[in-house]
Amino acid sequence: MPKLNRCAIAIFTILSAISSPTLLANINEPSGEAADIISQVADSHAIKYYNAADWQAEDNALPSLAELRDLVINQQKRVLVDFSQISDAEGQAEMQAQFRKAYGVGFANQFIVITEHKGELLFTPFDQAEEVDPQLLEAPRTARLLARSGFASPAPANSETNTLPHVAFYISVNRAISDEECTFNNSWLWKNEKGSRPFCKDANISLIYRVNLERSLQYGIVGSATPDAKIVRISLDDDSTGAG
């Protein structure tokens, strides 16, 4: 009887631990400001959330670049990476360095949204919820239709498989323009008499840069005839916008 009691107690303890909400919680469950950001999205089924604190604790691993491209470009998911849950600045910088090493681009921001733009990855860094447009995290119409039909779209051309060794991606930079920055004199002839006023309302600028990281191909039998050239090309995308 004592043995049976001990077994029953052990089983009860295990079942209690398994049913604990802490253990059952999804390690990718958004919290803090990330939860507020996702709550603003009308259709959040296409959002994949990564908490960098899980990477730091080794509870979860960073996806490889190929996995990230498949997730964002082929599956048309929206990725939200959250560094804000790491309390110490040193640990946060360490995880941001790992992010940079894994994907070839790094930011010192609290959050990064990764979406698809013209067949490549688009990185949008920001620090506060009000700095990002919730529409950026909405599932695209094609993804919603494909999800309903259960049809998977064919993979677009992947820059990793091109002949020339290179990686291409986009970076979105958003900046609000204050009234002070947009305040000018009412007259250039009578500056003091006419005073000044703000000429903008809710002004902002959104720039999208395309970045190409290229490396020269080997020429000759051992490639000694070709210099090991590394080229960075940065250009402004046509979809850059502004308002105000």
From TrEMBL:
Q: Which residues form the signal peptide?
A: 1-25
Return the Gene3D superfamilies for the record: Hemolytic toxin, N-terminal domain, Leukocidin/Hemolysin toxin, cytolysin domain
Is Transferase a UniProt keyword of this protein? no
Q: Which domain of life is it from?
A: Bacteria
Q: Where is the Hemolytic toxin N-terminal domain?
A: 5-187
Q: Which Pfam families match?
A: Hemolysin_N
Keywords, alphabetical:
Signal
Q: What is this protein called?
A: Hemolysin
Q: Which organism is it from?
A: Vibrio cholerae serotype O1 (strain ATCC 39541 / Classical Ogawa 395 / O395)
Q: What is the lineage of its organism?
A: Bacteria, Pseudomonadati, Pseudomonadota, Gammaproteobacteria, Vibrionales
